[in-house]
Design brief:
The complex is a heterodimer of chains A (about 550) and B (about 300).
Chain A lengths: L12 H20 L5 H8 L1 E5 L15 H10 L4 E3 L6 E3 L2 E6 L5 E6 L13 H12 L17 H5 L11 E5 L2 E5 L7 H4 L10 H6 L22 E7 L3 E6 L13 E5 L3 H9 L5 E2 L7 H7 L4 E14 L9 H9 L3 H9 L27 H10 L11 E6 L2 H18 L3 E6 L1 H9 L5 E7 L6 H4 L16 H12 L3 H18 L2 E13 L3 E2 L15 E2 L4
Parallel strand pairs in A: 1-10, 13-14, 13-15
Antiparallel strand pairs in A: 2-3, 4-5, 5-7, 6-7, 8-9, 9-10, 11-16, 12-15, 12-16, 17-18
Chain B lengths: L1 H28 L13 H10 L6 H13 L14 H36 L4 H15 L2 H15 L15 H26 L3 H8 L4 H13 L1 H15 L3 H6 L5 H11 L2 H29 L7
Helix pairs in contact in B: 1-13, 4-5, 4-7, 4-10, 4-13, 5-7, 6-7, 7-9, 7-10, 8-9, 10-13, 12-13
Classes of the chains: A alpha+beta (about 550), B mainly alpha (about 300).
């Protein structure tokens, strides 16, 4: 075959082109490599580079539903109150002080005179009224409008029973005095006000881009957006980053130390790579498989904090064998939760033996159940499945994710080993998962819930009979009655007792099987100082500093 | 040639129409919807949201009004990014994918054809087995393995590049190499095969017989027909490269169209999915046409028909 070989000179065009390309790449590689990392430049210039998990959908505080959105909005807007990360109590924000009536249904807020919009206009009580009317307007179709339902008449206005906003219990006594009347006392009302749904929007800006109740206009884009927070929106490059800049006109500007914050839409893995490569000061969450490494090798970077959420299994109680409370309780008792959190999270998340996560000031979680394999087997035998014999085929539904997959596999294995029950797993994409759980087309589904405000009621109320978030078919009049009592009770200790009773009923009836409590796990560069978290979505960038020196 | 192009263009229109129609109705069959949310939405609120986007009208009317808007070049509002239109999203993300694809394509061509030719010149030596072995690895090593591997070595260990992002010139290199090497591997094998076929032909023997030096035989006579198989592969490959690679864009977190497309499907962002599908289909049709034209130009035995 040698005769067919073509002699080829070493100066041929193709090898030299290949060589040139290789050399160019190498030259680019050495020439364009970052000489100073973004993190170091950021420390020098006061620019915080922080991961924000995903591309945000909008910056409208009245229509957003996600945490990444609320993280950016927290820098651009401010409500009547904030939350103190230490005591988790309400602190003054736009409202400098407030009075509460004797029966705790009328709140009078005194707005600071120096609170201003980023265009210089003063923030007034009328702006808050405009904002409440906007989010409650049926046409805006705000998914979180119910956050304002404690206000008298708010639900009726939102549901279209009246279109007269003057019937809603909010009025301006003067430019800087706002009065809010509630249906009944709400124990957590002052911290509830720190949620983005209660933030004011600038009326002239809204009306310049559409009607008061017109959804999704372009007022949220850079150049249009007028806010009242410690930062202003400078740039929103989709898929790249969002840049906010210190607002010198903010009333508390002396406590704002960062010059800019850049939010990046990196997913968990890309965020961790970027953090390691010196591109981010902070990223959250930590990929589960990296937790042990950071916990043991780089504890100075690895941070945890409370997060007001519970990870649980939802049980469809509408058909056998899971309609039998003994079976559900047996499944709950037959789980070694410590083993799950050790395996998946390196022991960094608390195992859940109750439903309400830690973090509520004044309410200490107490275990409701204690895993007991013998009792579980006994219950199962009572229900007609001794040693798991004859247990029908049951499946655990979960949405695609390595983390969920690993968790439900552990659950499957524990139930097989300890109870003799064979369960299969079913993995679907998120939308199919939502559809199936909504229609109760599942047996058991992995699930979780993050509270919207810092009170057990936000989690307990999801399991009320017929609540759209219940999704188990479980309906219990006693539970509903307890919820009703919680809502009406003013005495704190009595209220905590009622909450504990409600929680105990729920966990023993087991339409939900708590596995563990969420927490915040994040990586933080040591130069980021005074970064403090709260268990809810509320975040404050005040006081945060970047400093290389100790 | 012009009439050939015009005819191909007319033939492409019904194909495009079919793609749009099938995709439009198929999307609505998928479970869930653009406003599905873990937190329960009151029925009235959901109805209001659907009415805002005209989703409350009969499906066929939605379809005809979509076609009407499409004729005016309007791809509609995105359902997932409510303040942006599909046109805006494509306009901001397509250039990124185009640039990444172009770099990837250049690397694929240079490395692929280069390696293919080298291994063809010295068959059954290390100059053959090394590039072809490399190509085999390239084909077997998926981009989601190669990409993180490159990040580990070049950004985390050596610190030459950023691990993610698309800001500096240096940010282009790792993704382009990841994307390009995968296609280079195919092109190398196709080029080698094509060239080995060609150099056995009589006209090469003739060229050598008249005393033409080896490298000129190669460059002037063998290369053009030899890369025809690679060119046929390049048509759809280029369309894929230029409209964005989900995996590479995800690994390096590049704000391209490939990621947006896949996320849009997960988010049930009907209009965004459709918009990208139309674009993708049009690009495939266009590149197939370009490849057909290229093949005629490279192969004297073919004519425009």
């Amino acid at each position: 075959m040698e005769f067919m070989t073509i002699r080829f000179k070493r100066t041929g065009i193709i090898p030299s082109a290949t060589a040139t390309l290789t050399l160019t790449l190498l030259a680019l590689a050495t020439g364009c490599g970052p000489s100073e990392s973004r993190v170091d430049a950021g420390i020098r210039d006061g620019i915080l580079h922080i991961n924000n998990a995903t591309e945000i959908q909008s910056l409208d505080p009245h229509t957003i539903t996600g945490v990444p959105e609320s993280n950016v909005i927290a820098s651009l807007f401010e409500g009547l109150t904030g939350v103190d990360p230490d005591g988790l109590s309400a602190v003054p924000a736009v409202a400098r002080a407030w009075d509460v009536s004797e029966d705790e249904t009328v709140y009078t807020f005194y707005l600071r005179e120096d609170a201003a919009w980023s265009n210089g206009d003063p923030v007034t009580a009328h702006d808050f009224l405009f904002s409440f009317e906007r989010i409650l307007s049926p046409n805006l179709a705000s998914q979180y409008a119910s956050m304002l339902f404690p206000i008298k008449g708010a639900r009726e206005f939102n549901e279209g029973e009246t279109d007269d906003f003057s019937e809603v219990g909010a009025r301006a006594l003067d430019d800087h005095t706002l009065e809010i009347t509630l249906n009944h006392p709400v124990a957590y009302f002052l911290t509830l006000l720190s949620h983005n749904t209660w933030y004011p929007v600038h009326p002239e800006t809204i009306l310049a881009h559409g009607r008061i109740d017109e959804p999704h206009t372009r007022w949220v884009l850079p150049g249009n957006l007028v806010g009242n927070g410690p930062f202003t929106l400078e740039r929103w490059a989709t898929g790249r980053r969002i840049e906010v800049k210190r607002n010198p006109g903010y009333w508390d500007a002396a406590r704002v130390h960062l010059e800019e914050i850049h939010f990046y839409p990196y997913d968990t893995l890309a965020g961790e790579s970027a953090f390691r490569a010196g591109q981010l000061h902070m990223t959250d969450p930590v990929p589960p498989e990296r937790i042990r490494h950071y916990r043991d090798e780089r504890p100075e970077l690895f941070m945890t904090g409370d997060y007001f959420g519970t990870y649980y299994l939802r049980v469809n109680v509408t058909g056998p064998p899971l309609d039998d409370p003994r079976v559900r309780l047996a499944l709950s008792l037959g789980l070694d939760r410590e083993m799950i959190v050790d395996n998946i999270y390196g022991g960094q998340r608390p195992a859940a033996y109750s439903f309400i996560p830690p973090g509520v000031p004044g309410y200490e979680p107490e275990p409701v159940i204690e895993p007991d394999f013998d009792l579980a087997r006994e219950l199962l035998a009572d229900a007609g499945f001794p040693g798991g014999d004859g247990f029908p085929s049951v499946r655990i539904l979960f949405n695609t994710s390595d983390e969920h997959s690993a968790i439900v596999q552990l659950v499957q294995e524990m139930w097989r080993r300890e109870l003799g029950v064979n369960i299969s797993l079913e993995n679907t994409e998120w939308q199919v998962y939502l559809d199936r759980t909504n229609r109760l087309e599942y047996d058991i589904a992995r699930s979780g819930w993050i509270g919207d405000y810092l009170d057990p009621y936000t989690l307990l109320s999801t399991m009320a009979s017929g609540d759209g978030n219940n999704r188990t078919g479980w309906a219990n009049p006693e539970y509903d009655d307890l919820l009703d009592q919680i809502a009406r009770t003013r005495d704190t200790e009595t209220r905590w007792d009622l909450i504990r009773e409600t929680e105990t009923l729920l966990v023993n009836e087991a339409p939900v099987i708590p596995l563990f409590f969420y927490n915040r796990m994040y990586l933080k560069h040591p130069a980021v100082r005074d970064w403090r978290t709260t268990p809810i979505a509320y975040r404050s960038y005040k006081d945060v500093r970047l400093s290389a020196d100790d | 040639m012009l009439s050939y192009i015009a005819r191909r263009f007319l033939e492409a229109l019904p194909v495009l129409f079919l793609v749009i129609t099938i995709c439009f109705f198929l999307l609505r069959l998928a479970p869930g919807g653009p406003f599905s949310h873990e937190v329960d939405i009151p029925a009235a609120t959901l109805a209001q949201m659907e009415a805002h986007y005209g989703l409350d009208r009969p499906l066929f009317l939605q379809y005809t009004s979509y076609l009407g808007n499409l004729l005016r070049g309007d791809l509609g509002p995105s359902f997932h990014y409510p303040t942006r239109t599909v046109n805006e999203i494509i306009a901001s993300h397509l250039p990124v994918s185009l640039e990444l694809g172009l770099w990837g394509l250049l690397i694929a061509l240079f490395v692929g054809i280069g390696a293919g030719v080298i291994s063809m010149i010295r068959p059954d030596t290390w100059l053959d087995s090394a590039p072809m072995g490399g190509a085999m690895i390239g084909i077997c090593l998926p981009t989601f393995v190669l990409g993180p591997l490159l990040v580990l070595v070049f950004s985390l260990w050596l610190g030459w590049f950023n691990a993610t992002g698309w800001n500096t010139a240096g940010d282009r290199i790792l993704p382009a190499v990841t994307l390009g090497l995968f296609y280079a591997a195919y092109i190398a094998r196709l080029t080698r095969g094509g060239m080995r076929e060609i150099i056995r032909q009589d006209f090469i023997r003739t060229a050598r017989a008249k005393g033409l030096p080896g490298h000129l035989v190669l460059a002037k006579h063998a290369l053009r027909p030899g890369i025809l198989p690679a060119l046929a592969f390049l048509g759809p490959a280029a369309a894929g490269l230029l409209t964005g690679s989900f995996v590479v864009e995800t690994v390096f977190h590049i704000p391209g169209l490939g990621r947006e497309f896949v996320n849009a499907a997960f988010n049930r962002d009907y209009t965004l999915v459709l918009g990208v599908v139309i674009l993708f289909a049009a690009m495939i049709l266009l590149f197939n046409l370009l490849v057909d034209i290229g093949q005629v130009l490279l192969n004297p035995r073919q004519r425009f028909e």
